[in-house]
Amino acid sequence: MSLKTLCLIPVVAVLLSACAGPVPKADPxxxxxxxxxxxxxxxMAERVDGKRVDDGRFxxxxxxxxxxxxxxxxxxxxxxxxxxxxxxxxxRHFKAGEHYTLVESSLGTxxxxxxxxxxxxxxxxxxxxxxxxG
Length: 134
Known about the structure:
Elements: H1 3-19, E1 31-36, E2 42-48, E3 51-52, E4 58-61, E5 64-74, E6 83-94, E7 99-107, E8 110-116, E9 122-125, E10 130-133
Parallel strand pairs: 1-7
Antiparallel strand pairs: 1-4, 2-3, 2-5, 5-6, 6-10, 7-8, 8-9
């Protein structure tokens, strides 16, 4: 291993640990949307109303009407071919201080996500995700 490679390892470790840091406290003036995926998949926040989000682990939006774009990195069972799937959910009634969860689920080749309010009621959902080999 070269000296250059040895010097890069701590930098990469610091960058990766920064990504996995604690999720910031929710702003009570905004709606908070957490993400929940099925194992071994990874669901990442991408955009709110077309603008990129700073942290792919959650969404935080002002009250009202918003479009949320997510990417699902799907790991098919018994297969090494990861798929990258794009999904979108639109909801008009986000409320300040409310905690929502975007829950991914798969049935066969169909992948979708349901937006659940703080009481566990489905309030919106994506249609099937658009998937491409990763």
